[in-house]
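Example 5.3 — 30S ribosomal protein S10e
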Amino acid sequence: MHISKDHRKTILSTLFSEGVIVAHKNTNAEKHKYIADVSNLAVIKVCQSLTSQGHVTHQYNWNFHYYVLTDQGIEYLRGVLGLPEKVIPETLKVKAVPTPIAPQNDRRGPARRGPGGAEGGFRSSRFAGPERSSFRSAPRAPAAAPQQA
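Solution (predicted structure tokens):
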């Protein structure tokens, strides 16, 4: 199948920048959903070629083709697209995780974590009082004999 250099370069640059590419099974679609002016069939065929060379891995699930770039594919696309070594796909970038801000003077009291509260565990401290600990360890009173009437 003939794919123009512009379309091929667009597909490869999108694959490199994102690290993954998704294509619907419908090969008759005029346009790819996420890449402008490129047919869905062209995306599938370029990615099939990269799969056979070992540059991407292919996963098919529920009428969608999922292509994920491998380390070998990253090096290959850097050479084809003429990109420097410092440029990496979005899937390999580490995102900074924002630190959660603790509530200040929350009127509901201290934050609870799970069913056991801040202490952890299923039972919280309200079940651990002295009256609860002595409940099972207290000696039993002898059973009264039934009275005859």
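Remark. DSSP finds four helices and three strands in the chain.
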